[in-house]
């Protein structure tokens, strides 16, 4: 399934000062764009999916399993399955995340039925 970037209902709240939209997905992988305001947060959480994060713009303080790093434009990281992680946006920006397998909880929250 492909979601067009101009879909009017594509963006959804994803935490304090953060929104997300699903860019594309199939059962094996999903790509999601996150947009953060300065001070926005990805609250501590974990999930069984392996996640990659690419900083398209802005600056983010990521904490993964207790280790904190500052990431800026062009930086990327892998978050292992079930690792507790969070981020705080230091400078407004966008992240491009991929999840494997896809996050069916995201599909359901957006009102889609996983196929």
From TrEMBL:
It holds the Pfam family Cupin_2. Residues 33-91 form the Cupin type-2 domain. It comes from Roseibium album. InterPro entries: Bacilysin_H2HPP_isomerase, Cupin_2, KdgF, RmlC-like_jellyroll, RmlC_Cupin_sf. This is Cupin domain protein.
């Amino acid at each position: 399934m492909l979601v067009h970037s101009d879909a009017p209902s594509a963006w959804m709240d994803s935490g304090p000062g953060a929104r997300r939209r699903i860019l594309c997905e199939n059962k094996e992988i999903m790509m999601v764009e996150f947009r953060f305001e300065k001070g926005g947060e990805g609250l501590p959480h974990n999930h069984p999916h392996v996640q990659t994060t690419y900083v398209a713009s802005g600056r983010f303080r990521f904490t993964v399993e207790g280790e904190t790093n500052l990431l800026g434009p062009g930086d990327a990281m892998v978050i292992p399955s079930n690792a507790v992680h969070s981020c705080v946006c230091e400078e407004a920006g966008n992240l491009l995340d991929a999840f494997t397998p896809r996050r069916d909880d995201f599909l359901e929250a957006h009102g889609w039925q996983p196929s």
